Every structure is written in structure tokens, then in C-alpha cells.
Amino acid sequence: MSSVLIIDDDKELCTLMKKCIEQENLSVMIAHGGIEGLRFIDENKNDNSFSLVILDVMMPDINGFQVLKKLEKFPISPFLC
Q1: Is residue 11 very low, low, confident or very high in pLDDT (cuts 50, 70, 90)?
Q2: CA quadruple 46, 49, 51, 11: dihedral positive or negative?
Q3: Following DSSP, what letter does each residue of 18-54 receive, concatenated?
Q4: Are strands 27-31 and 79-80 parallel, antiparallel or unpaired?
Q5: By CB distance 3.0 to 4.6 Å, which of 39, 43, 45, 62 could disulfide with 34?
Q6: Alpha carbon of 71 to those of 24, 30, 37: distances in Å?
Q7: How far is CA 5 from CA 68, 70, in A?
Q8: What whole-number distance in Å separates Cα of residue 49 and Cα of residue 31?
Q9: Three-class secondary structure of residue 13 per DSSP
Q10: Which of these, 32, 74, 24, lies nearest to 54 by C-alpha position?
Q11: Which pTM does this prediction carry?
């Protein structure tokens, strides 16, 4: 099963996106910040478990551009910012 990772600090928006994506029979993981998202990806890097990452640009811990820069070393694509 394909999996989607949502990295966004807006909890209500994440819940809405998760419901919509799950209707397409995709599994969804949510990270409520850039640091948490990077941790999820690092923990699952050997699985190539994420087919798509939806990434918010404006987050309080580290912004989406900083997360995207760090994700260049992981074989994940595409990204939606």
C-alpha cells in the first residue's frame, strides 16, 4: 500500500487532508512539525515507505524549505509544498 506523509503544524488541516487521502485507499502518517517529519522519514528510510510527502512551508520549529533541504538525501519523491 502506498503511504503519504503530511508534515504540517495545523492539526485541523492535517485531519481533513488525512480523511480525504484515506478515501483513496492510501495510508497516511502525520507529523505536526518539521523535526517530527524528519524523524518519521529517518525511521522509515530503509522501507521507502512514503510515496508522497505533503510539506507545509511555514512551521514554527523549522520551516518547510529547511526540511526539504534535509530531505534531499532521502529517496522520496514527489514532494508537494
Answers
A1: very high
A2: negative
A3: HHHHHTTT-EEEEESSHHHHHHHHHHTTTTT--SEEE
A4: unpaired
A5: 62
A6: 26, 16, 10
A7: 13, 15
A8: 15
A9: helix
A10: 32
A11: 0.86
Q: Are 37 and 5 in contact (CB under 8 A)?
A: yes
Mean pLDDT of 40-48: 79
Mean pLDDT of 11-28: 96
**Neighbour tally for 5: CB within 10 Å:** 22
Torsion on CA atoms 41, 46, 49, 53, rounded to nearest 10: 30
Q: What angle do CA 79, 80, 81 make, to 5 degrees?
A: 115
Question: Rounded mean pLDDT of 35-50?
Answer: 84
Torsion angles phi and psi, residue 16, rounded to 5:
-65, -45
Looking at residue 22, its amino acid is: E
N residues, the chain: 81
